[in-house]
Design brief:
Layout: H1 6-14, H2 27-43, E1 50-54, H3 60-67, E2 71-76, H4 79-92, E3 97-100, H5 103-109, E4 114-120, H6 129-139, E5 140-151, H7 155-168, H8 185-194, E6 197-208, E7 213-217, E8 223-230
Parallel strand pairs: 1-2, 1-4, 2-3, 4-5
Antiparallel strand pairs: 5-8, 6-7, 6-8
Helix pairs in contact: 1-4, 2-3, 5-6, 6-8
The structure holds S-adenosylmethionine.
Length: about 230
């Protein structure tokens, strides 16, 4: 059985035409992107590297990594989101490749093929995140980096990431996130260790609503990222 939630894929496909509007539903991803791109690039110089972006959506991160000189492939299961990514790629002239395939299926076809794998803001949208983490670990070379970002699960993250972001500030459409699928750092750690990944660093991502800026922080209580190395 495929590890995907059809409702989630429909939701992201339905918003495909809005993906590259920096003022629309994906504004937070546009705001976050320079920060996460720098963070990833600080671990693995992207130029010349073969990178896989799992759950790439409309390609915000994938395209920016290609612009830094990486050879990027983006995969997703939301067809219309991938079409938006491909159309934007044609417009921007950036060289990268997209494919509609699951991480698990690609891991069988291309094990150890990538210098680094990114899987950002995606794990909290799938039924079995451990299976995605395991596939990411299989896809990267030994010694390669794997980067995840997701949402912590606690009262604070519920209040900020669901109630405030979706209902009060309306930064995100209602129903964007299902709190039950948020992932505690300890849970992500155990998925990563079970997949043969060495945990290198957790980093918090904080949002300042007044300035509408994301910054890196040591506070992992809401949004956080994890950098791992395949051992
Ligand atoms: C919040 S978006 C994040 C997009 C991108 N990673 C970013 O951070 O800019 C979540 C993405 O995960 C994708 N997704 C959900 N389930 C998936 C699955 N099982 N396999 C691949 N992609 C999936 C959705 O279609 C959507 O594009």
């Amino acid at each position: 059985m495929i590890n995907a939630d059809p409702h989630e894929l429909r939701k992201f496909s339905a918003l495909a035409h809005r993906w590259w509007d920096p003022t629309a539903e994906f504004k937070p991803l546009h705001q976050l992107n320079p920060l996460r791109l720098d963070w990833i690039n600080s671990y693995t110089q992207l130029r010349g590297k073969r990178i896989l972006d799992v759950g790439c959506g409309g390609g915000i991160l994938a395209e920016s990594m290609a612009q830094l000189g990486a050879q990027v492939k983006g995969i997703d299961l939301a067809s219309d989101a991938l079409s938006a990514a491909e159309l934007h790629r044609l417009d921007s002239g950036v060289m990268l490749e997209y494919e509609e395939v699951s991480a698990e299926a690609l891991a069988l076809r291309e094990p150890g093929a990538y210098d680094a794998v990114t899987c950002m803001e995606m794990l909290e949208h799938v039924p079995d995140p451990g299976s995605i983490v395991s596939a990411c670990a299989k896809l990267v070379k030994v010694g390669g980096w794997v980067f995840f970002s997701t949402l912590n699960r606690n009262l604070k993250s519920y209040l900020f990431a669901v109630i405030a972001a979706e209902y009060i500030a309306q930064m995100l459409p209602r129903g964007t996130h299902d709190y039950a699928r948020f992932i505690r750092p300890a849970e992500l750690s155990s998925y990563a260790r079970a997949a043969g990944l060495h945990l290198h660093a957790f980093k918090g991502v904080s949002y300042a609503p007044m300035s509408q800026h994301f910054t890196l922080s040591d506070d992992t209580s809401i949004n956080y990222m994890l950098a791992c190395v395949r051992v």
